[in-house]
UniProtKB/TrEMBL annotation:
<dbReference type="InterPro" id="IPR050330">
    <property type="entry name" value="Bact_OuterMem_StrucFunc"/>
</dbReference>
<dbReference type="InterPro" id="IPR011990">
    <property type="entry name" value="TPR-like_helical_dom_sf"/>
</dbReference>
<dbReference type="InterPro" id="IPR006664">
    <property type="entry name" value="OMP_bac"/>
</dbReference>
<keyword id="KW-1133">Transmembrane helix</keyword>
<keyword id="KW-0812">Transmembrane</keyword>
<feature type="domain" description="OmpA-like">
    <location>
        <begin position="536"/>
        <end position="649"/>
    </location>
</feature>
<dbReference type="InterPro" id="IPR011042">
    <property type="entry name" value="6-blade_b-propeller_TolB-like"/>
</dbReference>
<protein>
    <submittedName>
        <fullName>WD40-like Beta Propeller Repeat</fullName>
    </submittedName>
</protein>
<keyword id="KW-0998">Cell outer membrane</keyword>
<dbReference type="Pfam" id="PF07676">
    <property type="entry name" value="PD40"/>
</dbReference>
<dbReference type="InterPro" id="IPR006665">
    <property type="entry name" value="OmpA-like"/>
</dbReference>
<feature type="transmembrane region" description="Helical">
    <location>
        <begin position="12"/>
        <end position="32"/>
    </location>
</feature>
<dbReference type="Pfam" id="PF00691">
    <property type="entry name" value="OmpA"/>
</dbReference>
<dbReference type="InterPro" id="IPR011659">
    <property type="entry name" value="WD40"/>
</dbReference>
<dbReference type="InterPro" id="IPR036737">
    <property type="entry name" value="OmpA-like_sf"/>
</dbReference>
<keyword id="KW-0472">Membrane</keyword>
<dbReference type="GO" id="GO:0009279">
    <property type="term" value="C:cell outer membrane"/>
</dbReference>
Length: 650
């Protein structure tokens, strides 16, 4: 679908090696022509001379025909094989190149060194690793000074890696083709899936050289619906594809090529879904798009971080992976992921898992099984770990690209291709179950609707999830303004606070704790926000104190900030901050502790800029329990800080 010279969405075989080899072989052939031909057959010589004439006339088909006849006369005529191989190379027929060059090596007393080198790479790309080793060993015995060249070192490491992988492989992977409702086109590839695994977006073509469009299939009652155009606002007579969607399926970034409004050959565009309709796509513009090629985007779960592949200047190789963040509605200047990820060759088709911790991508610059392999890297604070090959049998000698992993980390979706001479003849979406070694860290989610408790009308509200250990917002989105639907992403293994808020309403807050060993099951929570009115109250679920202490724990920062925002956005309200305890301890002790804890929140808000005449605080000890103090769980709920609107001011 895509190679170095085209402007579609996915890469194919690089023509650079073909061109370089062709030039080298042309030189080799010219040198051969200065030596006497090896054959004793006059007929074979005559046919070779006819082929040479046709070659000079650029009639390659006739030249090949004469050369085929010549080797029928003399099967060991090695000059004819090298000439045929070079002609097939010019025509892009790699299978015939491989066959003819092998015949040259078989019969030539001293094979051309560049042919041995070419065959080593070709054998690796065909999964013939022992032959690749033989060819490269023969080449290096002739040209030992090439042994330290980067491409030779990479090939040697790849051959060793491939043989080691196959030697230890014990289980095959069951590949499941998605049903015909999904795989209903001539070619389908580059899948992207929502966090609930219910909407699958992908690129399709009706013909090998046809127009690329984005289609979507939805899983309803366990069955996939027929893939259909995502929207007439998105698809056009040009190439649209390589899309990525946020976890909730309402933000999409995709690639469009050759548009008259593009900055480069392929640009990234954004569209948002409101209700059932997608907005008119907008070019992301500078600094994301450039005069170069930008494609293959991958959005973080909340749609605020974008990874993509580009051949823009400032990189380490041909195509590198880049990242940009959306801050205050604007995309920042993209940053190269650096030498930890990018090589002097190509890195493509990034996929950032909903957990935000694991990045999957394809590359041909690391030791691998041949062609493009799939790799993953783990986030290490601000850096990335050394990429790990997903291994055999996920990776093979063929190109493996564009993998997406389900939110639970258990399964993967990608396109399985059939090729001939590196031309893609067929491509279908498949799924596999991942082994323990390469599974992603699980991510769960909450889904539901946000409504006005008074009118039951849907609300567009802000959704925020905070890692309480770092106080970092790890997910932020909005509920749909028409349906009120929202998604909340919950990475496993973290203590999380979540907030749903809208100006003029009391916000809702939540607390989630997960264990790495057990996935928090997806759940549905419908949220009804209460308009701000006198008498309405809110339990601040993410305020924390040490045992028997009134000093605020750092985990309270996000809740304090949201309480501050509530007061800032609604400057007329006056609130009482109340402290409450369980029934353990004396009345005087609990009265004092509850008052001091309420005062601690009061002082913090006052320090942040809220006027003291808008705040009151009081300790109620254990006189207003939410639940009977009959269990530790109930007592924990009763130990709390509350906000209550007590009056308004002019």
């Amino acid at each position: 679908m895509e190679n170095i010279a085209t402007d579609t969405q996915v890469h194919g075989y690089s023509i650079i090696r073909l061109i370089g080899t062709f030039l080298l072989l042309t030189l080799s052939i010219s040198l051969l022509s200065q030596s006497p031909l090896s054959t004793d057959s006059k007929k074979a010589r005559k046919l070779y001379e006819k082929a040479d004439k046709k070659y000079k006339e650029r009639d390659f088909a006739s030249a090949i025909s004469f050369l085929e006849e010549s080797v029928q006369e003399d099967s060991e005529f090695f000059e004819a094989y090298i000439r045929m191989g070079s002609l097939y190379n010019a025509l892009g027929n790699e299978d015939s190149v491989y066959s003819k060059f092998k015949s040259h090596v078989k019969y030539a007393p001293e094979p051309i060194a560049s042919v041995l080198e070419k065959l080593a790479f070709m054998a690796q790309d065909r999964g013939e690793y022992e032959k690749a080793q033989t060819f490269i060993d023969s080449f290096l015995s002739r040209v030992p000074e090439r042994g330290n060249a980067d491409d030779i070192q990479l090939l040697l490491k790849s051959i060793k890696f491939s043989k080691d992988q196959i030697s230890v492989a014990t289980d095959s992977i069951a590949v499941t083709y998605l049903p015909k409702e999904v795989n209903r086109f001539r070619l389908q590839y580059l899948p992207s899936i929502t966090i609930d695994n219910a909407s699958l977006f992908y690129t399709k073509r009706d013909h090998v050289q046809g127009d690329e469009d984005i289609v979507v299939s939805k899983k309803i009652d366990g069955r996939w619906t027929p893939g259909q155009s995502v929207s007439p606002r998105i698809n056009s007579p040009l190439n649209e594809g390589a899309c990525t969607v946020s976890a909730d399926g309402r933000t999409m970034i995709f690639t469009s090529c050759d548009d008259q409004h593009s900055f480069g050959s392929c640009d990234l565009y954004i569209t948002k879904k409101v209700g059932d309709n997608w907005s008119k796509p907008k070019n992301l513009g500078k600094p994301v798009n450039s005069m170069y090629w930008e494609s293959q985007p991958s959005l973080s779960a909340d749609g605020r971080t974008l990874y993509f592949s580009s051949n823009r200047s400032g990189g380490f190789g041909g195509r590198d992976l880049w990242v940009t963040k959306n801050e205050n509605g604007k995309w920042k200047t993209p940053v190269n992921l650096g030498p930890e990820i990018n090589t002097r060759r190509d890195e493509t088709t990034p996929f950032i898992h909903p957990n935000g911790k694991q990045l999957y991508f394809s590359a041909n610059g690391y030791p691998g099984m041949g062609g493009y392999d799939l790799y993953y890297s783990n986030r290490l604070d601000s850096n990335w770990s050394a990429p790990q090959n997903l291994g055999y049998p996920i990776n093979t000698h063929k190109d493996e690209v564009a993998i997406v992993i389900s939110s639970d980390g258990e399964s993967a979706f990608f396109a399985k291709e059939e090729q001939k001479n590196f031309e893609i003849l067929d491509s279908k979406i498949v799924s596999i179950q991942l082994s323990e070694e390469v599974k992603a860290v699980s991510t769960s989610y909450i889904v539901g609707t946000v409504t006005n408790v008074k009118s039951n009308q849907p609300l567009s509200a802000n959704v925020q999830v905070v890692n309480l250990e770092t106080n970092e917002t790890i997910y932020g989105s909005k509920s749909d303004s028409i349906t009120g639907e929202y998604y909340m992403v919950l990475p496993v293994g973290l203590e999380l606070a979540a907030y749903v808020k809208k100006k003029g309403f009391i916000y809702s807050d939540f607390h989630f704790e997960t264990e790495v060993s057990s996935l928090v099951k997806p759940d549905t929570i419908n949220i009804a926000l209460q308009p701000i009115e006198i008498g309405e109250s809110l339990v601040l679920k993410n305020i924390y104190f040490e045992l028997d202490s009134y000093e605020l724990d750092d985990k309270s920062i996000s809740e304090i900030q949201n309480a501050f925002d509530l007061l800032e956005e609604n400057p007329s309200i006056v609130v009482e901050i109340s402290g409450h305890t369980d029934d353990i301890g004396s009345t005087s002790y609990n009265e004092n502790l509850s008052r001091l804890r309420a005062k601690a929140v009061y002082e913090k808000l006052k320090y942040m800029g809220i006027a003291s005449d808008r705040l009151e605080f009081k300790g109620y000890a254990d006189t207003q329990p939410l639940y009977p103090n009959t269990s530790e769980s109930n007592r924990q709920s009763n130990r709390r800080i509350e906000f209550r609107v007590i009056r308004t001011r002019r």
